[in-house]
Amino acid sequence: QQPVQSPQAVILREGEDAVINCSSSKALYSVHWYRQKHGEAPVFLMILLKGGEQKGHDKISASFNEKKQQSSLYLTASQLSYSGTYFCGTYNNDMRFGAGTRLTVKP
Amino acid sequence: DGGITQSPKYLFRKEGQNVTLSCEQNLNHDAMYWYRQDPGQGLRLIYYSQIVNDFQKGDIAEGYSVSREKKESFPLTVTSAQKNPTAFYLCASSMAQLSNQPQHFGDGTRLSIL
Predict the structure, then answer these.
(1) Residue A42 in 3-state DSSP?
(2) How many other C-beta atoms are found inside a 10 Å radius of the C-beta of residue A58?
(3) What is chain A's pLDDT, residue by residue, as a tens digit (107 residues)?
(4) A-side interface with B, Cβ within 8 Å?
(5) In chain B, where do the E strands start and end?
(6) How far is A87 from chain B (nearest CA, A)?
(7) What are phi and psi of A48, to 5 degrees?
(8) Is B106 part of the contact surface with chain A (CB cutoff 8 Å)?
C-alpha cells in the first residue's frame, strides 16, 4: 500500500517555510525522502529509521513518529533550488512511494 | 563514476510490439528495482530483484517481464499485453533490500506509443 502524502502541491516565496507530511497504514521500519526535478531521476535526501529519530542537513530536516506511522519533511527558509517533487518512501517488508508533493519556490 | 545507466532515454512502441528497457549499474548493488511513473501517481513498483537469478513482482507487474542474469543488469520488457505502456520508467538499485539502504535512480526512459 502506498503511503499518503500531503499536501499535493505547495507554492512558496523564497525564504518561506514548508512542511510535507507522509503517513502509512502499516507499521514502518523506516521512511525515505527523495526530491525529483522535472524529467530527472529522484535524488536521495535522507532516511529515518525506526526509533522516532529526527534528521536534517542544511535547512531540510525530517522527523519520524513510528507510533503514528507518520513522517514530516521540514524545509526552512526555502531557496529556489528546493523546487521539485518530494516523495516519501516507506519501508515495511519492501518499499512503497507516495504520490509526491510538488513544491514550487518563487522569487 | 559509479551510477545507474538507463537506455534509451526515449522509446516508441508500435501496437503489438515488445520493447526492452536497459538498466545497468556499476555500484556493486545486490538489489535492483523497476518503477513506473505516471503524472500524479508517484512511483509504482513493477518488479524487484534482491539477487541474481531471482526477482519478485511488485504492484503492477502485469504486462511486464524482467530478467536478472548478471548482478549489474536488470532489463525490463514491456510486452504487448501491457495496453497502456506510455509512462516514465525508472530503474533503481540499493546495496541490499533493507530498511536502511537508500535507492539510487537512473535518469529514466520515457516510453510512448506510436
Answers:
(1) coil
(2) 9
(3) 789 999 999 999 999 999 999 999 988 889 999 999 988 889 999 999 887 666 667 789 999 988 889 999 999 999 999 999 999 999 888 889 999 999 999 99
(4) 2, 5, 8, 29-30, 32, 34, 39-44, 47, 49-50, 87, 89, 91, 94-100
(5) 4-7, 10-13, 19-25, 31-37, 43-51, 54-57, 64-66, 76-78, 87-94, 104-105, 109-113
(6) 8
(7) -115, 125
(8) yes
